[in-house]
Structure formats: C-alpha cells, structure tokens
Amino acid sequence: MTDFEASRARFDLPEGVTYLDGNSLGPMPKSAVERARQTIADEWGPMLITGWNKAGWMNLPGQLGDRIGRLIGAPAGSTVVGDTLSIKVYQAVASALELRPSRKTVLSDNGNFPSDLYMADGLLRSLGQGHDLKVVDPEAVLDAIDESIAAVMLTQVDYRSGRLHDIKKITEKAHAAGAIMIWDLAHSAGALPIDLTACNADFAVGCTYKYLNGGPGAPAFIHVRPDLIDQVRPALSGWLGHAAPFAFDLDYRPGDGISRMRVGTPPVIQMAVLDAALDAFDDISMEALRARSIELSERFISEVEAGCKQVELVSPRDPQARGSQVSFRFAEGYAAMQALIARGVIGDFRAPDTMRFGFCPLYNTLEEVSHAAAELCDIIATDGWDKPAFKTRKAVT
Ligand SMILES: *Cc1c(COP(=O)(O)O)cnc(C)c1O
C-alpha cells in the first residue's frame, strides 16, 4: 500500500527546508543513523574481521543488487552493488566491446552525463584498437544506430533537462542492428518504473545516492542480462569477482554470474546505510510514485510559469517525456538558486544558466512545491538574487 505520508515520516528533513535536490543527493532516512551505529558498534567493533562472515558483509553487494533489481525490473541474481557509477560505466562498455570485437564505435549523446563520456573515451584510448566514441544529439540517436555500432551507451534521463529516452524503442533498434545496449539509470532508479526484463537491455548501471537515498558516496550498481553474463569477461578483474577469491590463484577466473562484476572490497558501512534506505521503497508502488511525481512537477511548472515570465522551461512540457525533475533557464540562474537556498528551498544549478528542481514523492509534498514556486517567483520579481554573496561560485553547484 503506497502511503506517502508514511514514507515522508521515514526521512529526517531539516526544519524549514524544502528539499528539491534528491536527484543529486537523497536526504537522510532516520533509520540510517541507527543502522550505521549498529554496523560500527555492534559488528565492526566486537566482530572485527569475523564480521565478513558473521554479519554477512560479504553477501551485501548481491543482496542489495537484488533489492535494487526489484525496482528496475531485473531478475534476482542479475544486479550487484559496488564501486562508483563511473567505474560501472567503464565495466559495462569494456564488456560490451569484447562482445562485439569486429565493431569499433560506441554511440552516445550530448545529453549524457560527462563522466560517462569521459570514462568511455578513456577506455577507448587505452584499448588502442582504433575505437571511436560518436556523440550525437539526443534526437538523432535512433537514426545513428547502424551496423557499425558496437555499443549504444545512454542515460535514460538527461541530467540537465530531465528529458526521457524511450528505453524500449532504442534498445530494439540497437538489437536489430546487432549492437549492445547499455542504459545508465542514474536519474531513473527509484524515480520511475523501469522494466529491464521487458525492454531486454544488455547492461544497466546506476548510482544509489540520488533517488535511492543511500547517502554521499554510496556505491553504484550494475545489471547484466542473465543470458549474457556467462559470456562477459570483466575488464576490471579484481579478486572479489574471481570464482574463488580465497583460493588466491595466480590466474583470474571469472566468478559465477553477476558476482564477476564485483571488483574489490566493498564499502560495508555505506552499504548498510543503503540497505536501511531501501526500506523506504518496500511498500511503494512505482506506478503510484510516478503518478505523484508527475503531479508534483506539473504543479511546479504551472505555478512558476504563472508567477514569473522571465524564466524559460528547459524540460519537456509533456510529463511522459521527462523524468522526475524540472529545469528552468534564467540568465542569473546561479545567483537565483543561491538566493533560493538562503530562503530554505534547495535545488541546484547546472552551467551555464539552468536551475534544476528534483521531485521525490517519498518525501516531497504539493505544499512544498507551491512554496518553492512562490519563493522563486518572488526572488525573480524583486531581483532578490542581485547580491554579491549569491554570485560567488562554490566548488559544488
Ligand atoms: C550522477 C551521475 C554520475 C556520477 O558518477 P559517480 O562515479 O557516482 O560520481 C555518472 N553518470 C550519470 C549519468 C550520473 O547522473
């Protein structure tokens, strides 16, 4: 039974703050504090190294992978947690290229998050086999898929505009052309219903500190379609992805199934916190969550547009064509966002002029959305952004 009042009560949101940045860093679930304490004081402290067996630390990457798998339509045993998303992107692209040795092009789009493009580019350069990374406009992706493409690597939700790619259609086209399909679900997992099984994607990756609320630096996840995993040769062949890590063989043999996508020692305390955070999804229907997310974002767009003419909607107007965020362009967007944050409404800013607002039905309410819209319109109507303190760029925007 989906109950958003109950799910909001699970989070510790600071008094007086309207948090519209869960698309960058999810807020802290109250249970995270106790779970971190338990892991440190009741497990690490008394158990020392025996915690890997006694407290089940070694199995957490697979267990958490399965919990996330349920949110993205991936069968049990096909998703594992570890490392950062950038690393998981690298792993997926490297494995995809080995599956298509005669092809030399990776296709992506310029709406992708730069780290995905940087990681692919770095990999292709170090392979030294003449691969190239082809980056086209998001609207041109479908037409650019042909039989020269080894792998299509896309992020479903554009981090700036929230524009949503059609996973099913693009995956079908990639497969028809014989290419491997890699989806980055960084802004999708926990934000919208996804059915990886139905769309038949080969690889999917994502992070857990955005809509999954796993906390700053929480590990990423990777999914490989079950019928493919036995052919996948991990490029990052670390000991914990080995078939028998404690045999300490000198030669690498990939582990069974998805366990081969593990690399090294996983972050136990951070995984425990993520485990606690995922409880928030236990009684939530992702369809109900999506419906509420659309209600929140539709209200924000209509109230901002009614109250201030100086901003321009960057996100698709059709709610079915965007993820769970809304972006507006404003020339002084950085200063306006700083002014908003000073008033307790937290969104973020992406250069050169985009103000981003993420909506998470687990804890955001319609009242908060109206409050945020009213504050934004007031700041713009009164030039409330026009103060030196709001114009100084911080390291993280
Ligand atoms: C947030 C995000 C990342 C960040 O990668 P990290 O390695 O976790 O820092 C990468 N790709 C996409 C698409 C993202 O949205």
From TrEMBL:
InterPro entries on file: Kynureninase (IPR010111), PyrdxlP-dep_Trfase (IPR015424), PyrdxlP-dep_Trfase_major (IPR015421), PyrdxlP-dep_Trfase_small (IPR015422)
Identification of the protein by name: Kynureninase
Protein residues bound to pyridoxal 5'-phosphate: L85, S86, F113, P114, S115, D116, T155, D184, H187, Y209, W239, T265
Purpose of the protein: Catalyzes the cleavage of L-kynurenine (L-Kyn) and L-3-hydroxykynurenine (L-3OHKyn) into anthranilic acid (AA) and 3-hydroxyanthranilic acid (3-OHAA), respectively.
Source species of the chain: Hoeflea algicola
UniProt pathway: Amino-acid degradation; L-kynurenine degradation; L-alanine and anthranilate from L-kynurenine: step 1/1; Cofactor biosynthesis; NAD(+) biosynthesis; quinolinate from L-kynurenine: step 2/3
UniProt family annotation: Belongs to the kynureninase family.
Cofactor dependency: pyridoxal 5'-phosphate
Enzyme class: hydrolase
Modified residues (N6-(pyridoxal phosphate)lysine): K210
GO molecular function terms attached to this record: kynureninase activity
EC number(s) recorded for this UniProt protein: 3.7.1.3
Subunit structure of this chain's protein: Homodimer.
Catalytic activity line of the entry: 3-hydroxy-L-kynurenine + H2O = 3-hydroxyanthranilate + L-alanine + H(+); L-kynurenine + H2O = anthranilate + L-alanine + H(+)
Keywords, ordered alphabetically: Hydrolase, Pyridine nucleotide biosynthesis, Pyridoxal phosphate
Any Pfam family matching the protein: KYNU_C
